[in-house]
Amino acid sequence: YQFEGGLYAQLINNPSFEELKNPLAGWTLVKPGSSNGDLHGQTSAETSLLNNRQHHCAKLEVTSVASGAVGLANGGYWGIGLRNDTTYRVSFWAKKGPHFSGTIRATLESNGGNVYAHSADFEPTTTWQRFTCDLTTSGISGLTGANRFVIYASTTGEVYFDVVTLMPPTWKNRPNGLRLDLAQKLAALKLKYIQFPGGCTAESAGMDVCWNWKNSIGPLEERPGSTRNRWSYKNDLYLGLDEYLQLCEDLGAEPVYVTSSGISENAEEKEWFGICPLDQMQPITSDIMDLLEYCNGPTSTKWGAKRAANGHPAPYHLKYIEIGNENGWQTVKEYIPRYSMIHDALLAQYPDMKIMFNATGVPSPAPENFLDFADDHFYEKDLSHLYNKYDRINPACKTICVAEYASSIHGNGGDVIGNFGDALGDAVFMLGCERNSERMWWTGYGNYAGLLGHGNFGPCIVWNDAVTNFATPSYYMQKMLFTDNAGTQVLPFTQDTTNCYWSASIDTEAGKNDVLLKVVNKSSTSESVRVTLRGAGHVHPVGHFTVLTGALDAENSLANPNRVVPSAGTFVAGVNFNYLFPAYSISLLRLGLSR
Q: What pTM was computed for the model?
């Protein structure tokens, strides 16, 4: 639920009735008074479906409207947060059965039936038809998630539905875009790259049911919502390849596409890896070539023309491909020949493409030009020992990317709300990456967002429910040290401290000439440090600090989102000065230099 029920703004849960174990999951029947009816999940054996991409639809069977219309209702992802005087875009497909002679109407209402907006009456026919409308709410006195979307049928009979969407206003007004509050927090991090469609999504639960980018483009009704992640949950594919690439453009971030290496696993059901034989790898390689033509090819090509038809005539300029996910240490013997096969085929046609190997366990010495980038993943309680020294990095790896890291794993399951102690561990790890930044190309936290109470993978730096969200201490650490104070060049330094970890850099962007000192004190004891800047010239006497501190187990929450947030102030600076770093603290000192 990082995208569905989170970043992706669409509010309907199970919109195409393709939930794995129950096509009607998320849907309920509204039958006022003595009115009555039933809901049924339907397959192609029971009715003609919308198209061959959809495997189920819903049948609303109304047997009595004695007390009013009977409806098909969806409560969203454990709530729908409706705002007053706000316009929501509705789309759904419907057809009627032979015994239905009435109309259907879409409403936004409270769970108790207070109607905040409704559509005109639609008249379905016996063939599938798409219905759309804009619903503008009124009469909502307070923001809660206790709301639902309902499509009511006015008479007895049967009505069939499929591919139902409810879109609130989105970030940058993208028609199939992101939830405003979560996207704004995302944009504030000024991400340099986005890796997608996600590690385990790339391999998925098996080669026959895995993510297929060709199923994620074009109209939503042509996207089969039945793909399986390796953890066995469904992907609607409503947020697909174009939406990912558009997000990268909107954020100014490099897209990094993770493709299959021909290896898959269903971890939840303990099924062993499915491994594509080497002599059957050509379709996988060809599919990656099609992807690159779609992303980068001119409109005169087959897939470039398809991209233009889907609304993006200009190329996306995809430069980075990662082959597989976490195969380099789990199935390294099978992975290396498949990586090599895809790697060589890509470079033969796209010599400037940057290709990522998904582990640092590369044979050393590695073959010449074996890899450009290696992708490390770390989920450990204490990451402070990693990348503090150059010898941690395999010499065969020219450049390291840590696409997933987190200290807040705590057993890798459920909702793991990162606390301040986790942020301390993350900060020390990131300082080590910064000090090694000539080899460390980029880093990425394990997950961005999660739906509170419904996660199955721990570390996220933003958590949300249907109406609001909060950021964890690690979010604020990342923003404080590496978004708002990135620096442009690492500075050499020596230290003689007991408790503190350091990194030093200079920031010369936008006319600045500032020294940045980033310091983490992981101890329960504060430490006074004498700071000496050598060769700095004149230092402005007023320095600026930002500090994040708290109890090790302190967490932010929906009820208290600001329990652990940064505070800022000034201090007396100079070429030499003393500074007291508080116990359990993450500090940023900014010192202005004369040019």
A: 0.94
